[in-house]
TrEMBL record:
Organism name: Thalassiosira oceanica
Protein name: Uncharacterized protein
SMART domains from the UniProt entry: SEL1
SUPFAM superfamilies assigned to the protein according to its UniProt record, in alphabetical order: HCP-like (SSF81901)
Length: 161
């Protein structure tokens, strides 16, 4: 359930390493084995695994029936254990009303919390971040004119010499 960068993944494959780079276990080649491995990590309270299981409920993957409410429960547990990705998933669920009653302001609060904890795609300078801050400003009370102005300033391309 750990992530590695794409370069390390490619380098491992070039060296003939086709198992887990961390524990050297064989990587499952079917949904049932993947789900078994995932649930084993969930039982150990691995926040990344819990978030990933939430995604399976959200999208209906690995042979799991789609259940958005269960997905939100999994995202909430993963977020409580420190998963920044789960915070972002909770943002989407609340903002769009997937599995919970739609609450844009609550969704934006999760978005802000994910950004504060280091989720790169929610930081200033990202175009999606700018759009979210604009939406937060429009909802009222969540973002200020200053937040929007700062985000707008940070999305401008740097001057070239």
């Amino acid at each position: 359930m750990k992530r590695i960068c794409a370069g390390c993944y490619v380098a491992a494959k070039e060296r003939g390493m086709f198992d887990c780079p961390f524990c050297r276990a064989a990587i499952p080649d079917n949904d049932a084995d993947n789900l078994t491995m995932l649930r084993a990590r969930v039982r150990k309270k691995d926040p990344m695994a819990i978030n990933l299981l939430g995604e399976q409920y959200f999208y209906g993957g690995l042979g799991i029936q789609k259940d958005m409410r269960r997905a939100v429960e999994m995202y909430t547990e993963a977020a409580e254990l420190g998963s920044v990705e789960a915070l972002f998933s909770l943002r989407n669920a609340n903002y769009h009303g997937n599995g919970v009653q739609q609450d844009k302001a609550k969704g934006i609060k999760f978005y802000k919390k994910a950004a504060m904890q280091g989720r790169a795609m929610t930081k200033m300078g990202d175009k999606d971040s700018l759009e979210s801050i604009k939406e937060a400003f429009m909802v009222g009370g969540v973002a200020t004119k200053e937040h929007y102005a700062e985000a707008l300033k940070d999305t401008k391309p740097p001057l070239r010499k």
